[in-house]
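Input record, target 12 of the design panel.
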């Protein structure tokens, strides 16, 4: 299909109001023409169909531009706040609107996946962040902790980076409760996931 803006006879940077006005003008014109007899009517119907298809693409492009103007191409602080407040759907929507997908973009995407317990997807995004900025300690530490959690459900992410000669932090268990097994729902892994996730989000601040 030809460039949708060329169907309107306008450039892509034309103001939205002018684009809408031109669309309405052509829609009315072709709408009348399609009721004419013979080839002229058929041409009107064809042009109207082409116009509607072009406008659907233009409307989607306009919405994307609005999102970028509203959220910016790197408003990561606001996205981080949304994640911390548990508004993952809105955070994801804002991430999706960003076209320049930097290492920080992939880091925040990994946190959203982590919050949703999609650990494999979370790790992929963290790996991309580290690849883009291999000297960034925040990304490397998050990846190390996630690898520990995914590789051993009994690993406590709090010990990452500690002096091995120092005793690990003691976690008090409620009376009558024991940590056992290696299933995702066991209490040790649940603690690790929560602690690692909090550590990751604190890095964003």
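The sequence produced for target 12 reads:
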């Amino acid at each position: 299909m030809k460039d949708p803006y060329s169907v309107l006879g306008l450039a892509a940077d034309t103001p939205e109001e002018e684009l809408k006005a031109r669309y309405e003008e052509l829609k009315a014109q072709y709408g009348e023409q399609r009721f004419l007899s013979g080839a002229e009517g058929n041409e009107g119907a064809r042009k109207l169909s082409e116009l509607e298809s072009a406008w659907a693409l233009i409307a989607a492009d306009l919405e994307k531009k609005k999102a970028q103007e509203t959220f910016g191409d790197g408003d990561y602080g606001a996205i981080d706040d949304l994640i911390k407040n548990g508004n993952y759907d809105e955070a994801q929507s804002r991430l999706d609107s960003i076209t320049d997908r930097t290492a920080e973009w992939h880091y925040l995407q990994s946190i959203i996946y982590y919050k949703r317990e999609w650990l494999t997807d979370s790790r992929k995004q963290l790996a991309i962040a580290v690849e883009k900025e291999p000297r960034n300690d925040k990304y490397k530490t998050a990846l190390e902790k996630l690898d520990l959690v995914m590789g051993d459900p009994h690993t406590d992410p709090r010990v990452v980076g500690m002096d091995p000669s120092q005793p690990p932090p003691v976690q008090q268990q409620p009376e009558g409760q024991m940590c056992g097994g290696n299933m995702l729902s066991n209490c040790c892994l649940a603690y690790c996931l929560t602690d690692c996730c909090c550590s990751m989000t604190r890095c964003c601040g």
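Residues 39 and 45 are 10 Å apart (CA to CA).
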